[in-house]
Amino acid sequence: MSMLKKTKAEAEVSLSPLIDAVFLLLIFFLVATMIKKEDKDIDIELPVSTSALKVKPDDRVVVIGIDATDGLYLDGTPTSLTELMLNLRELSATEPERRIRLDADRSTPFHRVVEVLDMLQFRGLFNVGIRTYDEHYN
Predict the structure, then answer these.
(1) What angle do CA 51, 123, 114 make, to 5 degrees?
(2) I need a labelling partner for 101 at 20 to 30 A (CA). Which of 32, 43, 44, 84 fits?
(3) CATH number of the domain where residue 78 is located
């Protein structure tokens, strides 16, 4: 009498749903990191400088902009002189060493630039740079 041995069927795990989930997570994180970056620049013509220092770009820099019509901008959003002064007061109280970049249009009156620089000095914010045109950066 011969007995046939019954073999147990082995369970198989399909890897295709796991691979799909990994690719979806990868796409999600790629898209999420691209959304995080803010555009703080305004549309102005920068003055040209031949002796400007090269500074590494920093995402945490506070950008103050002045356009050709004397409009003020803080991190790319329009602001008034009073609101700018209040924001600078908060910044000087919390982070006095924070980098600040001043972007001024080349046709902006000089007294407006000096006015903003005086506000920064009054609030004790001395880590200030003025952005000029650079063909490699722009």
Answers:
(1) 45
(2) 32
(3) 3.30.420.270
126 burial via Cβ count (<10 Å: 0-12, 13-18, 19+): exposed
Domain carrying residue 71? 39-138
50: in domain: yes
Q: Distance (Å, rounded) from C-alpha 89 to C-alpha 119?
A: 9
Count of the separate structural domains present in the chain: 1
pTM (2 d.p.): 0.65
Is 98 a domain residue? yes
Distance CA 102, CA 29 (A): 33
